[in-house]
């Protein structure tokens, strides 16, 4: 049972993080071009689940990371950094590097296997829906508003699967540009 829990928790947390990333700046170049600043972005989010399972999983993962040997913890951090991300369990935030080339090509950070539809609802406001054919599958909708080229806020509701059961989640999120250099 311990092995199952170890694999189920990261999957649930990965689904939540993937949703946060796929909701953050997920426009397609053919349908919409967002005017955002390239560089290092921090996406902060708060996710609530109907069952409370994610909240328990995050708490247990934090305890597991704290008890992990320093070398192993550093290896995990380096792996995430090599993918342009860092993750703060206490602050529920991820940092993502967004290059001007990615913005120009419409290749903004998003989870592989996800499809998004985004439409402009105001000068700086957008609504979106998404569906991810991932493990576990995730889909949802929400809205976001950019207060500038360097900041946004939004919310979403989505459904994913946890231990074979549908799980409803709601998320509040905000993003801010940190600096031009991602290094």
TrEMBL record:
Q: Which domain of life is it from?
A: Bacteria
| Annotated keywords | Coiled coil, Signal
Write the signal peptide boundaries: 1-29
**Coiled coil where?**
47-74
Protein name as catalogued: DUF3617 domain-containing protein
Q: Name one Pfam family in it.
A: DUF3617
List the lineage, top down. Bacteria, Pseudomonadati, Pseudomonadota, Gammaproteobacteria, Chromatiales
Q: Which InterPro entries does the entry link to? A: DUF3617
